[in-house]
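Structure (tokenized):
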């Protein structure tokens, strides 16, 4: 049994991680400021005496005695992280300084949930961990992209200078229950529009590609990375290596929801990556991990979740 701190624990991925680690017999401190997280995601865990919910913002210092820290605190969808870009940058940069300070003090292992956005609009396809990226440092997405890149730098420097035990994962598009209705991500957007029989909004010609990983697969990867004892610190890509164009994905959602929605086209947003696909050979080799949930199965569970939320 371990005492585990999960920052951003009431968020989409964090809530699934809290539940899984709690079910495995650990003591969980779930830290969230509820900017994008929701109490509904973890309400069913609150009565458990091994689960502690703390409303706190990681741009302020936090003190606890813990064995492991999963740092998932940061708005992750363009709508949310562009709403207050300075706050987003502070969450990534000041937040990582605070949790690394905590990890250093209590000699805890810390995992940073980084992102495929560190690769920017990539010129290497699929993306490997050795690729340094093609990121606009002054664009409207920079608060998130550069904030996460800076957080990786802090992780490595605390490791080299202070011997902090670190793990870095780069998360690619993830979907599943507990996603927010209004987060502007492609999966939630398309499903909600399809269930309401509204026009499905595709940006550009829909030729840009994405790969979609079901949340339970991602959580398995996070836990394997945290608990690997080979001294493998990463960074490691976690995502699904099966590529879809956005247009094909929109057609699949219409088919699975039996929707009357039509597809409409709008201008491509600034700095939107044209291709996003993980090379996961390192995750396979070092962690024995790869996704196992087929896209249609995961989407049906996600559609059922959104049907309940919309009711």
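Design, position by position:
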């Amino acid at each position: 049994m371990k005492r585990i701190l999960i920052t951003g624990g009431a968020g989409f991925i964090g809530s699934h991680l809290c539940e899984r680690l709690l079910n495995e017999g650990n003591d969980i401190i779930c830290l969230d400021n509820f900017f994008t997280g929701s109490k509904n995601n973890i309400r069913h865990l609150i009565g458990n005496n091994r689960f502690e919910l703390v409303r706190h913002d990681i741009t302020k210092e936090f003190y606890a005695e813990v064995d492991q820290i999963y740092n998932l605190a940061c708005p992750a969808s363009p709508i949310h992280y562009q709403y207050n870009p300075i706050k987003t940058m502070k969450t990534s940069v000041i937040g990582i300084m605070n949790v690394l300070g905590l990890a250093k003090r209590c000699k805890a292992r810390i995992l940073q949930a980084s992102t495929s956005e560190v690769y920017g609009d990539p010129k290497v396809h699929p993306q490997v961990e050795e690729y340094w990226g093609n990121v606009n440092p002054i664009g409207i997405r920079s608060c998130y992209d550069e904030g996460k890149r800076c957080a990786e730098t802090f992780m490595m420097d605390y490791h080299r200078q202070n011997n902090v035990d670190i793990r870095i994962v780069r998360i690619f598009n993830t979907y599943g229950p507990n996603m927010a209705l209004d987060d502007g991500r492609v999966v939630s957007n398309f499903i909600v529009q399809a269930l309401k029989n509204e026009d499905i909004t595709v940006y550009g010609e829909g030729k840009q590609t994405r790969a979609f990983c079901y949340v339970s697969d991602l959580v398995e990867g996070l836990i394997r990375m945290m608990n690997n004892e080979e001294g493998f610190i990463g960074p490691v890509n976690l995502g699904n290596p099966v590529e879809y164009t956005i247009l094909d994905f929109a057609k699949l959602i219409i088919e699975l929801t039996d929707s009357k929605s039509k597809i409409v086209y709008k201008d491509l947003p600034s700095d939107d990556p044209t291709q996003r696909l993980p090379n996961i050979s390192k995750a396979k080799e070092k962690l024995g991990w790869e996704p196992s949930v087929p896209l249609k199965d995961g989407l049906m569970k996600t559609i059922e979740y959104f049907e309940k939320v919309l009711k």
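Reviewer-requested clarification: The domain at 3-175+213-240 is CATH 3.40.50.720 (Rossmann fold). The radius of gyration is 19 Å.
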